[in-house]
Amino acid sequence: MAGWKWTLLTAGCLLVATAGGCGYPSAAGSSAQAPAVSGPASNAAPITTNAVSKPEATAPAAADVEPASNPLPAAESASQPPAAVEPPVGRRPSADRTPKRPGDAEKITFEDLNLGMPADVVYREFMLSDRVKELEGNRVSLVGYMHGAPLSSKKIDSFVLLKNTQCKFGPGGQADHLTRVFLREGNQTNYTNEDLTIEGTLRVEPFTGPDDGNTWAIYRLDDSVVKARRR
């Protein structure tokens, strides 16, 4: 695929917030050109603090003040802790566990590709696992989510596939939690925030970030096709 596409994509990804990795709220979907990869938002209401108003010169008579409904005693109200706000939890795609048919690609998950790499590091060959060495060059089938910042929302022929909706491609991301995808010549797809099953030939080809010098991705899937999920 033409290198300029990845230059534009990676330049756009530099605008992504840098805090956290796959265990943090997703910044993978930050883009003005395409909808973001969605994740479930917390249903908890934001905690607010009631402002204390200054007493006015003339206070209303007690009889004129309408009592609040079901008030708590002052001591009990003061002792009530604020409601906890649960952090958002990213979506993980379900693995494809349907029976493998003759001629099918080998079904794997991102756990097969996990090298235990922290965020923002440079890949070295000694990090590669025996499992990945076994899979390299083979036709595999992998389930994940499309990165939320493709160059277009339609007629996409290359993109980044994420382990879950909180993973990042770029600063703050873990390079073994995603793969670049290059569709077979003549194949295109549209952006979706649903999970995708991608079948392609697995290659180990580290991709270095254009500015920070860290490894943003280790893998790529060549000659890929988007497969319909057999649920």
Description of the structure:
This protein has a domain at 105-231: Protein of unknown function (DUF3299) (OB fold (Dihydrolipoamide Acetyltransferase, E2P), Beta Barrel). 10% of the residues lie in helices and 21% in strands. The chain is built from three helices and six strands. It has helices spanning 3-13, 74-79, 130-135; strands at 106-107, 139-146, 158-162, 178-183, 195-208, 215-227. Strand 1, helix 3 and strand 2 form a beta-alpha-beta unit. The model is unreliable at 1-5, 7-20 and 24-88 (pLDDT under 50).
Descriptive keywords:
five-stranded mixed β-barrel, OB fold (Dihydrolipoamide Acetyltransferase, E2P), 231 residues, mainly beta, globular
Chain-wise SSE layout:
Layout: H1 3-13, H2 74-79, E1 106-107, H3 130-135, E2 139-146, E3 158-162, E4 178-183, E5 195-208, E6 215-227
Parallel strand pairs: 1-2, 4-6
Antiparallel strand pairs: 2-3, 2-5, 3-4, 5-6
> How would a crystallographer describe the biggest sheet?
5 strands, mixed, barrel
Q: CATH homologous superfamily of the domain at 105-231?
A: Protein of unknown function (DUF3299)
- Count of DSSP strands: 6
**Strand portion:** 15-25%
Shape: globular
Strands ordered across the widest β-sheet: 2-3-4-6-5
Which oligomeric form is depicted?
single chain
Count of helical stretches? 3
- Structural class, from secondary structure content? mainly beta
